[in-house]
Specification:
alpha/beta; about 35% helix; binds magnesium ion; binds adenosine-5'-diphosphate; five-stranded antiparallel beta sheet; about 25% strand; Rossmann fold; single chain
């Protein structure tokens, strides 16, 4: 489906998705638009389909119907290889389970994201400075970044490494799936402040999902998942 370029970082139309294996959960999104540079908080109860929706926006799953444009690229038309490249270059993803490689250093975890992207903007000779700058901004000590194993870090430190890894390629869109669920209230607020300062620095857009509505105040817009999605869960 062709369309005229616009100022939307996310543009979803007539989306329908159903998990293949066994599940009877279906999700449909008639229309969802996010403007460039906006920070969006999407809330919904556990099991309401937040991670499913993010898996479609990031191209990890493909819808049965409809179109998803990310930065004016219709990702539903890309091959899986092209989607991998697109994800590496344009998206920064912070997963709920963080997905750090536990037995290597924070440095290597972040470097891997640089290696996967077409890093024209950051020549290899500058990688080290670039990584140490972003980790410093996120209050991570250089000795920890260079020498510790990721598994030795506290959850709070691991979360900040996951942010550094997601932002190192200056993606246009950051996707965060309940990144604060393992933190207490005070640490959640500090984490969000650090995340927002980095997101603002690179002028990225941010979509964060959570079941915890209290986090919404820092975002430009806060949306109830039910207002954009219809979900059906049939008895199996
Ligand atoms: N990998 C999967 N395979 C099949 N069904 C799934 C899978 N992941 C989630 N689901 C189904 O999708 C529904 C929504 O789950 P999810 O998107 O993870 O919700 P949330 O992130 O809001 O907690 C679940 O009830 C489950 O039935
Ligand atoms: Mg989830």
């Amino acid at each position: 489906m062709q369309k005229i370029e616009n100022d939307l970082i996310v543009d979803i139309k007539d989306l329908a998705f159903q998990w293949k294996a066994k599940s009877t959960f279906t999700l449909s999104v008639p229309s969802f638009e996010v403007k460039n540079g906006k920070t969006i908080f999407l809330y919904g109860a556990s099991g309401s389909g937040k991670s499913t929706l993010l898996s479609l926006i990031t191209g990890m799953n493909s819808p049965q119907a409809g179109n998803i444009w990310i930065d004016n690229q219709n990702i539903t038309q890309l091959t899986s290889r092209a989607k991998d490249r697109f994800r590496a270059n344009k998206l920064g993803i912070i997963f709920q389970q963080l997905n750090l490689i536990p037995f290597t250093t924070p440095y290597s975890n972040i470097e891997l994201a640089l290696a996967f992207a077409d890093h024209n903007q950051c020549p290899k000779a500058e990688w080290k400075n670039h990584i140490l700058e972003i980790t410093d901004n996120l209050d991570l000590e250089p000795s920890l970044v260079l020498k510790a194993r990721a598994s030795e870090l506290s959850i709070g430190q691991q979360q900040r490494v996951a942010v550094a890894r997601a932002l190192i390629n200056k993606p246009k869109l950051i996707i965060a799936d309940e990144p604060t669920s393992a933190l207490d209230e005070n640490s959640q607020s500090l984490f969000l402040d650090l995340l927002f300062s980095q997101v603002n620095k690179i002028k990225a857009s941010l979509i964060m999902v959570s079941h915890d509505k209290r986090l919404s105040s820092k975002f430009d817009e806060s949306i109830d998942l039910h207002d954009i999605c219809q979900t059906v869960r049939q008895a199996s």
